[in-house]
Amino acid sequence: MIKLYSDSHCPNSHRIRIVLAEKELPVEIEEVEPENLPKDFLKLNPYGKLPTIVDRDVVFFEPSIVNEYLDERYPHPPLKPGSPSERAQMRLAVMHLEDELYPLYFSLIKVKKKTEQVKKIKSYLDTINNYMSRQEYFVGEQYSLADVTIAPILWRLAPNGIATTEWPHLEAYMDRLFARPAFEQSMSEYEQMLHDVF
């Protein structure tokens, strides 16, 4: 059985839980506080990075690496497109989301005055809205690891004061992502609570 060390608040851990749920893999999840890492965890992963998985006594961390490993180790259903060009597009999308959107989100939740961060995120979302006017998912018509990567951030927009009503294509895309049974199953209690007030 796979063991996942997960931060219930963090979108990076959420990404791994989505993949595990999509593949219906048996998993033991241990929620860990990043500020209070247990000693047994640090023995497994001296870097102290979350999320971390243990599968057959092999330890992996870094969310994009973990998700690619899970998709290759447990290939059904596939979360990567079939063609080399589409797989490259997916990896490029994941890289850009990690390099651009994730830092904007982490910056947003760390500051009290959020005006500048909100402005930057809205500009990014405007681009995503235009992009999603042309296709069902991030890479054409197939749900992939790129969609898995963006979904946790999109889920956290409204609780952080960012309305999406001005972007109909983005909202339709969000509806498709959030309607997936695996997305519902992937959420921690904290993540469920984020939308309980909306």
Q: Could you describe the 3D structure shown?
A:
The protein is an alpha+beta fold and 198 residues long. It folds into two domains: 2-73, 3-Layer(aba) Sandwich (Glutaredoxin), CATH 3.40.30; 84-188, Glutathione S-transferase Yfyf (Class Pi), Chain A, domain 2 (Up-down Bundle). 55% of the residues lie in helices and 9% in strands. The chain contains nine helices and four strands; from the N terminus they run E-H-E-H-E-E-H-H-H-H-H-H-H. The chain has helices at 11-22, 39-44, 63-73, 84-110, 115-132, 145-155, 168-178, 181-186, 189-194; strands at 2-6, 27-31, 52-55, 58-61. The protein has a four-stranded mixed sheet, covered by helices on one side. Strand 3 and strand 4 form a beta hairpin. The longest helix is centred in the middle third of the chain and has 27 residues, at 84-110. The mean pLDDT is 93.
The CATH architecture of the largest domain would be Up-down Bundle
Broad structural category: alpha+beta
Overall form: globular
CATH class of the largest domain: Mainly Alpha
**How many domains?**
2
Name the average pLDDT.
93
Enumerate the strands of the largest sheet in spatial order, edge to edge or round the barrel: 2-1-3-4
Please report the number of helical segments: 9
Weakly predicted, low-confidence segments: none
Residue share in β-strands? 5-15%
How are helices and strands ordered from N to C? EHEHEEHHHHHHH
Counted beta strands: 4
> What is the distance, rounded to the nearest whole angstrom, between the alpha carbons of the first and last residues?
36 Å
CATH topology of the largest domain: Glutathione S-transferase Yfyf (Class Pi), Chain A, domain 2
